[in-house]
Amino acid sequence: MSENLVIIKNLHKIYDPEGANVHALRGINLTVKKGEMLAIMGPSGCGKTTLLNLLGGIDKPTKGTIIIDGVDITRLNDDDVTNFRRDRIGYIFQLFNLLDFLPVVENVALPLLLQGYTINSAYEEAKVVLRQMGLGDRVYHYPNQLSGGQAQRVAIARAIITNPAIILGDEPTGDLDTKTSMDIMNLFRRINIQNKQTLIIVTHSRAIAEQCDRIVHIENGVVSKEEIIRGD
Ligand SMILES: Nc1ncnc2c1ncn2[C@@H]1O[C@H](COP(=O)(O)OP(=O)(O)OP(=O)(O)O)[C@@H](O)[C@H]1O
Ligand SMILES: [Mg+2]
After folding, report:
1. Number of compact structural domains in the chain
2. Which pTM does this prediction carry?
3. 76 inside domain
4. d(CA 68, CA 26)
5. Is residue 174, in this structure, part of any structural domain at all?
6. Using 50, 70 and 90 to split pLDDT, how confident is the model at 42?
7. Residue 210 reports pLDDT greater than 90
8. b/e per residue, 60-87, with b = 16+ CB within 10 A?
9. 54 in contact with ligand 1, CB cutoff 6 A
């Protein structure tokens, strides 16, 4: 049995407790194994992005713990959580979050520059990853000169370039056609096998979810069902 990389216990998130008081997560319990590819499904508003943001250290829970590789990230201070995210987590946002004023190569190289790489070596690495993604001829384009599928691949390249232990993808194939979506899932599977990286992917597509090892369903801020797709 492989080890648990992520252990989530009784996770709650209440947005704006003084005002609107939206109880987005209501006690999530979930473990994810090292090297697992996990899909998260559930209706709009059930808490998927909230959960990913907490896992990525982008937001703090109201209650509960998230242990990643032995570290309780809910107890880290802001600087430590930023460093943890920079070094260990790759995040593909629901709306890509590319920087429009930077060329593709710099968008992808940015996480390496933040880790202290020189510009030359960061750009070289970025070009290698972009070539693997079929974007070798788009390196000096700007994000607004790309198609949706190309922009999505740039966002993925940026998330994987530091070789993070965990890749979090918030609908990384949303809005893409079936073939491009499957290409991206194949790419995820390849890096999952090659680098033993753990992937957690939010999707509304059953076909995409079935490319993963397990599907966790969320409803109203709790895990409502789990399905094993592939055993290990
Ligand atoms: N910053 C915020 N302030 C207040 N409420 C929020 C905030 N972000 C999300 N919510 C609420 O929390 C609930 C969960 O939102 P979340 O974005 O996690 O849903 P989701 O499952 O990702 O939905 P979708 O599939 O539409 O992306 C929703 O009811 C949403 O309105
Ligand atoms: Mg969402």
Report:
1. 1
2. 0.94
3. no
4. 20
5. yes
6. very high
7. yes
8. ebeebebbbbeeebbebeeeebeebbee
9. no
150 in ligand 1 pocket by Cβ < 6 Å? no
Residue 118's domain comprises 35-58+86-228
Indicate which CATH number applies to the domain containing 137: 3.40.50.300
Instruction: Count Cα neighbours of 39 within 13 Å in the Cβ-side half-sphere.
Output: 27
The verdict on the CB of residue 24 being under 6 Å from ligand 1 is yes
Ion ligand 2 neighbours (CB, 5 A) are 49
Q: Which ligand minimizes its atom distance to the CA of 51?
A: 1
Assess whether the C-beta atom of 44 lies below 6 angstroms from ligand 1: yes
* Contact (CB, 8 A) for 232 and 2: yes
Q: Helix or strand or coil: residue 142?
A: coil
What is the distance in A from the centroid of ligand 2 to the CA of 140? 30
Position 25 in a domain:
no
Is the distance from the beta carbon of residue 88 to the nearest atom of ligand 1 less than 6 Å?
no
* 113/110 Cα distance (integer angstroms): 5
